[in-house]
Design brief:
Blueprint lengths: L21 E3 L9 E7 L6 H20 L8 E7 L4 H13 L5 E3 L4 H14 L3 E3 L13 E3 L7 H14 L7 E7 L2 H16 L3 E8 L7 H10 L3 E8 L1 H11 L7 E6 L1 H5 L8 E4 L13 H14 L9 H20 L4 H10 L2 E3 L2 E3 L13 E6 L2 E6 L14
Parallel strand pairs: 2-3, 2-4, 4-5, 5-6, 7-8, 7-9, 9-10
Antiparallel strand pairs: 1-3, 11-14, 12-13, 14-15
Helix pairs in contact: 1-9, 1-10, 2-3, 4-5, 6-7, 10-11
Amino acid sequence: MNTSTLTRRGAIGFSLGALAGLSVPARAQGGAPIRIGSTLALTGPLSATAQIHRIVGEIYVEQVNKRGGWLGRPLEWVLKDDQSKPDLARTLYEQLVTADKVDLLMGPYATGAILSAMGVAQRYGKVLVHHTLGIPSLAKYDMQFPAWSLGSEPATTVPNTVFDALAAGPKPPKTVAVVTSKFPSIQFMSAGAREVLKKRGLNEVLFLEWDFGNRDFGPIANRIKDAKPDFVWVGAIGLDGNLLLDAMKKIEYVPPQHFYLYPAPGPLVTLPEAKNALSVTIFEEQPPFTNAPGAAEFITLYRERATKANLPDPSVEVQAGASYTAWQILDAGVAATKGLDDKAIAAWLRANRVDTIQGKLRFNGPSNYGDDLMRVKQVQNGRWAVVWPKEFTAGGAKLQTN
């Protein structure tokens, strides 16, 4: 593993597959660069989604530097590969603070790595803005701030949103199969879904779990087919959904209705077997989301970079939206306090709302979480379309079944 940082000159034009630590070049003029340190899962099981966060970070740093940087100083993003391993993320964040002496931190991708980074941030009194933490109750540190707007009790509110969408659809389900990864946030949300479906009077006909990193979904597909559910809740992260759908295809099974919690969005939406698959979102490339200030420019830049990087789907969706929001939150804290003092930034964020492409976010709820802004989207004609609530749909999109 190489965790060294490239020079600012040498960082230009780096590859998405590189394993080394990286430094996005600082182009703005005026003083020493402000260094933002973070890790991402550039390799390992979570890399398909972490690529999105990497592209977004590059875009945001370049946008800031083109407008003069922060506090009149250019930004430099020091990025290291945590290989989808929370323990490694912890070590690398220690390095970022102590050896690399970065000025500020940005969170990694996925709950396990974020919790590792949070422990380091707390030890050194650093603000940590993060974009994908799925268990708010574990966020005990008062200087951490979420960009993933799922509220403080997502195990209840998010499944209720999903089942509200199904209840309003053409074939409200009566029987449900719950299959899920044991990845902490996924397992947590799926457990909440089980409680919600029971309270709604639905019948759970199957419950199965698999270890994070599992690649053999054949037995799971067979069990789902045998259970004959009206609806399949899949606690998926990364490529889990693709692998399960491939296993279903091999046994000629098509679920009547199916949901995937945190899939790698591009690989899933472009898979033919994912027709009518459901997921959740906080931002999609459609009105009214695209009406947010700055959204149009971001979408254009992201599409260019994602296409160049050969991502399966170059559209801006929930992962890209959350990542961009995280940078906006940190940006707002620095601008408002006119400095890099972590305690001052944290105090301001707790007391104020921040304008983002998701809308105005607040951080004065439990664990610094605000409102649950989750919406339900569905794969329709090879693209994600928001289907619930009605006021967030576009072009008359409605939930469809197989």
